[in-house]
Amino acid sequence: MSRAVENLRAVRLVASGRVQGVGFRWQARQQARALGIDGWVKNRGDGRVEMVAQGERTAVGRFIAWARSGPGYGYVEHLEVTDEPVRGMTGFDVR
After folding, report:
1. Confidence class of residue 4 from pLDDT cuts 50, 70 and 90?
2. Could you state, in order of their start, the residue ranges of all structural domains in the chain?
3. Which reaction does it catalyse (predicted)?
4. How many Cα atoms occupy the beta-carbon half-sphere of 51 within 13 Å?
5. Considering 25, 29, 33, 87, which one is annotated as catalytic?
6. I need a surface site. Which of 22, 44, 54, 63 has the fewest CB within 10 A?
7. Known active-site residue 62
8. Active-site choice (3, 7, 33, 43)
9. Is 43 one of the annotated active-site residues of the chain?
10. Following DSSP, what letter does each residue of the chain receive, concatenated?
11. Span 21-30, pLDDT tens digits
12. Residue 48 CB: number of other CB atoms within 10 A?
C-alpha cells in the first residue's frame, strides 16, 4: 500500500438529534469541501443524517469533530462512527 493511500481514511457517520431541517447537509458539504473531504450526506427516513467521508486522516478527524456538534440551529445527541474501506470518490454530494 502506498504512503498516500495509508494516509487516507474513510468513515460512515450517522448523526441523531435535531439534525434534519436545520441545514445540516448543506453545512456538512461546506465543511467537507473546506477540508478536502470526498463523500456524501443524506437525510434518512428515521430522522437521522448519514454521511460517508473520505480524505486525509487529519481532515477526516476534523470533519468528525464538526459532525459531533453539527450546525448552529441543530444539535447532535449521538454520532455513530464506523470505518469504511477507502474507495474512489470525488467531490462531496448532498443526496
Report:
1. low
2. 3-85
3. an acyl phosphate + H2O = a carboxylate + phosphate + H(+)
4. 34
5. 25
6. 44
7. no
8. 43
9. yes
10. --HHHHTEEEEEEEEEEE-SSSSHHHHHHHHHHHHT-EEEEEE-TTS-EEEEEEEEHHHHHHHHHHHHH--TT-EEEEEEEEEE------SEEE-
11. 999 999 999 9
12. 20
